[in-house]
Amino acid sequence: MQLDAKIPSGPIQDKWDKHRFDLKIVNPANKRKFDIIVVGTGLAGGAAAATLGELGYNVKNFCIQDSPRRAHSIAAQGGINAAKNYQNDGDSIWRLFYDTVKGGDFRAREANVYRLAQVSRNIIDQGVAQGIPFAREYGGQLANRSFGGAQVSRTFYARGQTGQQLLLGAYASLSRQIEAGKVEMFTRREMLDVVLINGQARGIVTRNLVTGEIEKHAGHAVVLATGGYGNVFFLSTNAMNCNVNAAFRAYRRGAFFANPCYTQIHPTCIPVHGTYQSKLTLMSESLRNDGRVWVPRNPGDKRPAAQIPESERLYYLEEKYPSFGNLVPRDVASRNAKEQCDAGKGVGETGLAVYLDFADAIRRDGQDVIGRKYGNLFQMYEKITAQNPYEMPMMIYPAVHYTMGGLWVDYNLMTTVPGLFAMGECNFSDHGANRLGASALMQGLADGYFVIPYTIGGYLAGGNNIEDVTTDHPAFRDSVGYVQDRITRLMSINGKRTVDDFHKELGQILWDYCGMARNNDGLDKARTMIQGLRAEFWENAMIPGKTNDVNQSLEKAGRVADFLEFAELMVMDARHRQESCGGHFNEGFQTEEGEAMRDDEDFCYAAAWESKGVDADPELNREPLEFEHVKLTQRSYK
Ligand SMILES: Cc1cc2nc3c(=O)[nH]c(=O)nc-3n(C[C@H](O)[C@H](O)[C@H](O)COP(=O)(O)OP(=O)(O)OC[C@H]3O[C@@H](n4cnc5c(N)ncnc54)[C@H](O)[C@@H]3O)c2cc1C
Questions:
Q1: Are 68 and 208 contained in the same domain?
Q2: Which residue range(s) make up the domain with 370?
Q3: Is the beta carbon of 245 within 6 A of some atom in ligand 1?
């Protein structure tokens, strides 16, 4: 299929303005005639539901938690980017655009990224107006810090709780609309299918997680903002109920899934410490502003950090990348940590850790200053590891954190299914093969507050022949049947192995063969292993409890069943991309210095997969990427 990204014509600086003018507008009096379903209440979904309600649409908003404000966005620590240039340190829309395209290893769409950089400035204004307590300088100006992949300070933050504060802002706006009756909130509902009528997305089917009831909801358009799928690895920094099922159901109904193999591994997480862990904890990248990363210069040196003299410490990022130092992008920092550990220089009991050391910063600025900047993160580290990071270096190691792949969307954020939109981490759009820090919150809020309100109006008013339908339509009946069958099938397995155990094994396969580094043999092996594990799951999974009750095992089983199908797609995508770029590092394609080596000649495209059913290979569709403004070059942070 020929993918049409619907990128507006004209100079890149004017595309969004021109497009907003060209898009048809729904007359204010007509907006109340349209029902919009928004699945997800994180920064993307919460912002969208609030804004669409404010505009006058009837919004139905869904989430799996007991409150919209428990969406995973609440966990975001470090900050949100915006090209405000308050510091006069050389930032601009153009520089943010440039850094993001380059950081994503030239695998994102230029037009989208430029719009993101433009809109980033409005997000901060909106946040301030909502009362987000962003950190401020003495004179009252909003403070900024730097993040990986940038040489300017453009990251706005509220200590280490930026996501939480931004989510509270969106939640307050959302609550206003709930109270006004424009948003109907459905908590503890899990979307299990999207309903298509005449090829258009016209509703969803959900399971009420309290009563087990299967529910039908119709609308004129459906917006998915259901987050990322990092949890497919079992161990990740994501909240444990993050999943792929909404996006994957949409994929099975015809929405293409783009670049599933691009996983971001975050370099500064608390290392894995045992086999009974279910979650990993991120230490924000902002810590690398003041913390220096090092390992012993000599392999096998097991002395405590304090006993290793300065001359025997290897500050490998500072030595190798003098321009960016500890603030290289995440893929580069992660790979270098792995390289040092593989060479026997890893620290701690497992040897799978490096130091993040604040001693110099504390000597320079004093403990109070460092405490004010990162206090809650230091406290969190101490609670988990029982070590005081003010006194001894933190130990960190890379962990799965974010997924750049997602549903393919055009410039309007519409998937290949008309009327089905995808936003935030659930779409593939703006980060290419690697996401720079503080850019996910930026994208989620840009999509929710400043893009979808225009583009969904363009769709609804754009002569798409969207007749009114009700949930009595046979398409809803079919969808309910499909959902119920799958639940019945799960409940009748009656096996012996827990769902968590399957998930854990799947995660290990992916980490070993489709993780920080991949190679063709490993990927082939992983595919066979995943198929075998999936077959075993459907014969031997143990799911206690009842269908029509609160049943977290059943919820989990449904998600793991989807992960078991989706994981194969990830591996296939990784196998087909015979190059290395950003979060996809195939060991067969690297420079002499061990950096990712792209093949722009053959792979400068977004890979959009089209489902052909569970037992058939999906079809690969390519959206060629053109780089008119940021020259395709080998990425260098030296
Ligand atoms: C520990 C941590 C720290 C981070 N720090 C930063 C940071 O400092 N800066 C930054 O830019 N990014 C950060 N990120 C990334 C960022 O937090 C996420 O990418 C972003 O918040 C995702 O927002 P979202 O709205 O797309 O999805 P989410 O916030 O994940 O929301 C998903 C929503 O969808 C709902 N949902 C999911 N599936 C279903 C379903 N089937 N049915 C119904 N509802 C469903 C959920 O209930 C939820 O409401 C961090 C991530 C982690 C893990």
A1: yes
A2: 265-399
A3: yes
Q: Does the pLDDT of residue 274 top 80, yes or no?
A: no
Examine residue 3 and state whether it is found in any structural domain, yes or no: no
For residues 412 and 111, is the Cβ–Cβ distance under 8 A? no
Same domain, 303 and 326: yes
Q: How far is the CA of 245 from the centre of ligand 1 (A)?
A: 14
pLDDT beyond 80 at 409:
yes
Ligand 1: centre distance to CA 73 (Å):
4
The answer to whether position 2 is within a domain reads no
What b/e readout covers 96-132, taking b as 16+ CB neighbours within 10 angstroms?
bbbbbbbbbbbbbbbbbbbbbbbbbeebbebbeeeeb
| 617 assigned to some structural domain | no
Are 190 and 217 in the same domain?
A: yes
Q: Indicate yes or no: pTM above 0.90.
A: yes
Q: Are residues 561 and 534 in the same domain?
A: yes
CA 567, CA 231: separation in Å to the nearest integer?
Answer: 11
Catalytic, 534? Answer no
| Number of domains within the chain | 3
* Residue minimizing CA distance to atom 53 of ligand 1: 238
Inform me whether the pLDDT recorded for 315 exceeds 90: yes
Q: What count of residues does the chain have?
A: 638
Q: What ligand 1 atom has the least distance to the C-alpha of 43?
A: 25
Marked catalytic residue, from 330, 435, 559, 635: 330
Ligand 1 pocket check for 62: Cβ under 6 Å: yes
Taking only Cα atoms into account, the Rg of the chain, rounded to an integer number of angstroms, comes to 24
CATH of the domain at 314: 3.90.700.10
In a domain, 353, yes or no: yes
77, 226, 402: which to mutate for ligand 1, most atoms within 8 A of CB?
Answer: 226
